[in-house]
Amino acid sequence: MTVIAHISDLHISKDSFDEDLFMQAVSEINHLHPDMIILTGDIVENGYYSEFEQATRYLSMFEAPLFAVPGNHDSRNLGYQSFEELIGERSWKLTLDENFTVVGLDSSSPDEDRGHIGTPQHMWLEHQLDECVIKENFSIVALHHHVIPIPQTGRERNVLSDAGDILKTLTTHEVGIVLCGHKHVPNIWKINETLIVNAGSLSSNKLRGKNRNSYIVYEISDNEIEIFLNNVGGEKFLFGKYPRNVM
Questions:
Q1: What is the pLDDT of residue 246?
Q2: CA pair distance 91, 238, nearest whole angstrom
Q3: Which helix (H) or strand (E) holds 102?
Q4: DSSP annotation of 71
């Protein structure tokens, strides 16, 4: 079984970040011993270099390997450069056990809130997913912006500008799970055989309604995917249970 912790929207800064909640989340996730942690953007609030320096210290507290993609807040104020220097590549691919592939995408644009993948990155994504189909690999794609609107998040303003094309690629390649963040509201959609999962905010005080700070845990076996929503410092419950795609 593969266990993945999905965290998002930390918003590390002086005003938008709750350090106590973050430390509680670190303790809980380390106790789970996941195989990896995937962070779907908005690590910092303003994209400042000093915020990214602070972020590296916080993220080093996680014991499992952590892979991150940038969000719109990360790409402000030349933050996309700071991300590459201090966090890592903005788009990436990794393979587990030769039959399990995770692809990270940069959906951010400098100093803009909207999401956009763009033609070059889209072509690269299609190539990676073509290989997954050929090799019969289970695939996961991670990006910050949501690819379909999320309920209870108000007026839709910044879904991916090229969402239709990206969604077609994801579903026609039978991607197992798409991991997103951005809206600070947990949600699951299923389109064809693809699960599209949005995480809430791990440690930001910018929450909608009665939503709490949370993270998502995936337990992926040979036959099924169990998705658990974990409220930081609180309850954990089964968010969804689905058969796993078998190529």
A1: 59
A2: 30
A3: strand 100-104
A4: -
- Can you list the alpha helix ranges (DSSP code H) found in the chain? 19-32, 49-59, 79-86, 119-135, 163-172
- pLDDT of the residue at 128: 96
Mean pLDDT by 10 residues, the chain (247 residues): 96 95 97 97 97 97 98 96 96 88 96 92 97 94 95 82 94 96 96 95 92 96 95 94 78
Residue 31 phi/psi, 5-degree rounding, is: -65, -25
Q: 2-243 sits in which CATH class?
A: alpha beta
- The rounded distance, in Å, linking the Cα atoms of 207 and 146 is 17
Beta bridge partners of 177: 140, 195
Question: The sheet that has 92-96: what strands, in order across it?
Answer: 92-96, 100-104, 138-142, 177-180, 194-198, 187-191
Whether 73 contacts 40, CB under 8 Å: no
- The one-letter amino acid at 69: V
With contact defined as beta carbons under 8 Å apart, do 50 and 21 qualify? no
Answer yes or no: are the C-beta atoms of 66 and 39 closer than 8 Å.
yes
Q: How far apart are the C-alpha atoms of 133 and 247, rounded to whole Å? A: 7
One-letter amino acid of 35: D
Give the residue extent of every domain in the chain. 2-243
For residues 221 and 189, give the distance between their C-alpha atoms in angstroms, rounded to a whole number: 20
